[in-house]
Amino acid sequence: MKQARLFQLQENELPPAETTKPQTTRRERLPRLDKHPDLRQRLLAFCRLKAGEIWEDPVSGHRVGVLNAAREEDVQRLTAGYRIALAVNDPPYNIKVGNANTQQLSKIDLKDYLVFSQKWVSHTVAVLAEHAHFYVWIGADYREDFQPLPDFIILMRQWNATLRSRNFITVRNQRGFGTQKNWMWVRQELLHYIKGNPPFHVVYTDIPKILKGYYKTVGGKRTENLERSKSDTIRPGNVWVDIQQVFYRMEENVPGCYAQKPLKAILRILETSSQQDDIVLDLFAHSGTTLLAGEMLGRRVFTMDIDPIFAEITIRRLEHYRRTGKTGWQWRNPFPELEVGEG
After folding, report:
1. Which DSSP string do the residues of 14-80 spell out, in sequence order?
2. Which one, out of 16, 105, 229, 243, has a CA that is 20 to 30 A from the CA of 69?
């Protein structure tokens, strides 16, 4: 009789095999990949791309590469002469995630981090269209004088002749981290710059308008804000409180990915700052959220990751969505090849 065998790490890190009995809790069937080098070696065998290679999507024209964002020739190869209407990037924050410093998500000297940042930003700016949006997620380590956020903002002034600062967005996480002697840290920062005068499309949240009191005379009639509203819900400001950070109970969760951005946040960026058939650039694919958002909204996405495993996950997530309509794997394994039958 065949039994399922899962690649063994440590007993307490793997969830029980799925059964017909309902379970009140589940754990991801693929652990955080940067902390398991042995597992990473196994996964490399299932990656269709090697360093320097680019996958061309035959359906929507997306491109996924195993490339280095700090290399100009790699960015040029990925974009292939196309001009980018929207760049949205989520680079490493130079912050230990979960107090772990790993090869895949390491904390390096701040000067080295800024050199790396200068390179990938420069390569991105070089391929932007005449009128374009530029977004970047960035972090702040309160244990290290809030680096690299203020340092990165100052670095961006190098491109003042090309890019103008547009907004400083904070996304509020539902869960945070901290201690009993500090405020809970529940924020992620998103910087927004523009080149030229790109279009911006107004969108609305799911948050209903409930407050009256902002009165204004229109056409000789005194009206309050709800009377003048174009929608029953509010527009997003630069503090986003309606977006749930990703965790294993959500359909969009991609097990193994330790820095996944919420799909709703990326969809909002693409909806407001790009149009149908625009090309969107993301130099740090990770879990493939930008590619998936582009597929859902009719944008072509050119994306890369220096790690072939995350490039493979990005492609698989797109294929999984087209096959099932699901945006992720929740707690399940995006690499079912690891679960093989034994006689």
Report:
1. SPPPP-SS--S----SS--GGG-HHHHHHHHTT-S--TT-EEE-TTT--EEE---TT-HHHHHHHHT
2. 243
- How many other CB atoms are there within 10 angstroms of residue 108's CB atom? 12
Q: Per-domain residue ranges for the chain?
A: 34-206+236-337
Contact 259, 105 (CB under 8 A): yes
- Residues 49 and 286: their CA atoms lie apart, in Å, by 15
Burial of 57 (0-12, 13-18, 19+ CB in 10 A): middle
Query: Which pairing describes strands 128-138 and 185-195: parallel, antiparallel, or unpaired?
Result: antiparallel
d(CA 137, CA 248): 22
Helices 110-125 and 72-79 meet at what angle, rounded to 10?
30
Lookup: tokens for 108: 């390096």
Q: Strands 140-141 and 147-148: what pairing?
A: antiparallel
Q: How far apart are CA 297 and CA 306, in angstroms?
A: 26
Percent of the chain with pLDDT over 70: 84
State how far the Cα of 127 lies from the Cα of 124, in Å rounded to an integer. Answer: 6
Q: What is the distance between the alpha carbons of residues 226 and 234, in angstroms, rounded to a whole number?
A: 10
DSSP assignment, residue 329? Answer: -
Whether 103 shows a pLDDT value over 90: the answer reads no
**Taking Cα atoms as reference points, which of 32, 113, 125, 30 lies closest to residue 75?**
125
CATH entry, 34-206+236-337, from 3.40.50.720, 3.40.50.360, 3.40.190.150, 3.40.50.150: 3.40.50.150
| Tokens (6 digits) for 268 | 């909002």
pLDDT tens digits, one per residue of 185-194: 889 999 999 9
For the chain, the first-to-last Cα distance in angstroms comes to 6
Other C-beta atoms closer than 10 Å to the C-beta of 118 total 16
Task: Name 64's Cβ contacts closer than 8 Å, sequence gap at least 6.
Answer: 49, 54, 55, 57, 285, 291, 303, 304, 305, 311, 314, 315
